[in-house]
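Hello support,

Our group uses your service weekly, and this is the first time we've seen a run hang past the timeout. The protein is Acyl-CoA dehydrogenase family protein. I'm not sure whether the cause is the sequence or the server load. Input pasted verbatim:
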Amino acid sequence: MDFALPAELVSRLAALDAFIDSEIRPLQEQDDNERFFDHRREFARTDFEAGGTPRREWEELLGEMFRRADRAGWLRYGLPAEVGGSDGTNFDMAVIREHLAAKGLGLHNDLQNESSVVGNFPVVHMLLAFGTPEQREEFLQPVLERRKRLAFGLTEPDHGSDATWLETTAVRSGGDWIINGAKRFNSGMHSATHDIVFARTSGEPGQATGITAFIVPTDAPGFSVDFHWWTFNMPTDHAEVTLRDVRVPDSAVFGEAGGGLALAQHFVHENRIRQAASGVGAAQYCIDRSVEYARERVTFGQPLANRQAIQWPLVELQTDAELLRGLVRKTAWEMDRRPHFEVSDRVSMCNFRANRLVCEAADQAMQVHGGLGYTRHTPFEHIYRHHRRYRITEGSEEVQKRKVAGYLFGFAGPGRRR
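Update from on-call engineer: The timeout came from a worker crash unrelated to the input. Re-ran successfully.
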């Protein structure tokens, strides 16, 4: 592949920057909106009386950002033209996500909420790939316009990465299904109208087949949002959910009955590579700010930048960022040309290394900035707290390494030894 960015993509990045400067940055700075981004942000964003969920004012500001980005043609960039997108490729999205994250904390790209002027819509991709015509008609445009929201319920109290062992069940009852079980860290539940619930409908615990996804209304009798988990990075939208004899029609089945894990894999593949790209961008932001500060900060009569104790850790991080940038872009480029399962190991490599890199870069930025770096008046602790979760969610580091090992040793993937 040609490692030089295509001229058209370079032009689009420049246009994206101009849009952010003209439409998004003024929105962030008007009235008192800066409170959502300065040292007060956790208090400004978090409704402590409502279980630690996002405040209405914060959600309204994000909503206005989405509307402006959609009107300007940026929000749906990575989606197919059939839903108003620009057919942006995985490679395009990797470059753009890195570019936006490298700008630092701002309304243009606040990954705490997975909000960005160039949106990430894994649920829309799932609907396009697996939804029935009726489901696409019911959900596609309402989801894109924020009139409906589909949450994601896979993890359970006793099962996270071992999803094939989930204990939520669904059994047939006439033409309906009856669902019983519980979900943990059910994302998006503070505003979800529906929940994508994964339940075992056949087979035995541990089998990959026999798990079915259902689109369940959150106001269905027996569906209970028990509480929201207070996490390292607030506010939260991750809930504990209980389902007691929840009845849904057969039309609620999402994708093929028994093939629900294919949906889950579709969800995580694109998310993982884009999270990796964002991790590289945020890491680069931390590195750049640290270099800038070290050149300006004078201690014992010399700039910090003169000292090897400051130079060498940043050299290591910069080297890793350069290496990962190439791997992320190459993997995204291959995802545009090959079935995803053929490069799933590379996606995992990108994801766990980039997630670790940004945490290390944020930690080193705190160290270089000294006491200021430890305060919330600088953004590094916020970057660390946000990206630390990705070393666990959607496949922990250990699970990602297991995937790579499976491909490397021939236990899984296209080179599997029968």
